[in-house]
Specification:
Blueprint (H helix, E strand, L loop, with lengths): L3 H6 L9 H9 L4 H12 L5 H8 L3 H13 L3 E5 L7 E5 L5
Antiparallel strand pairs: 1-2
Length: 97
């Protein structure tokens, strides 16, 4: 018996721009949440955890865990905001670009 999900997947077109991220998800064992956080930081350098949590509509601790995992993988860096030391800014790590 054929799995209908597998059959339907044959017709899904994957944009070339998505291929590196799908590869990361497979090889780096990234979650969808981590990929979403990474893509948002890549598109919005210097954004903070609170902004990411708001945009993704998930709790800050969930974003923090995703950020910590991405930092451990060497994909993100975190810098303290020089104007407000309580805030941090997130950037894609140089080796991940």
């Amino acid at each position: 018996m054929t799995n209908p999900s597998i059959e339907a997947a044959k017709y899904i077109e994957i944009p070339d721009a998505a291929l590196p991220y799908l590869s990361w998800m497979r090889h780096e064992q990234m979650t969808c949440r981590q990929v979403a956080v990474f893509l948002l930081v890549e598109a919005n350098p210097g954004c903070g955890v609170g902004a990411l949590a708001h945009v993704l509509d998930i709790p800050k601790p969930s974003v923090t865990r995703a950020v910590q995992k991405l930092m451990a993988m060497g994909l993100l860096t975190m810098l303290t905001d020089p104007e407000d030391y309580r805030m941090v800014k997130l950037y894609v790590a140089e080796n991940a670009q």
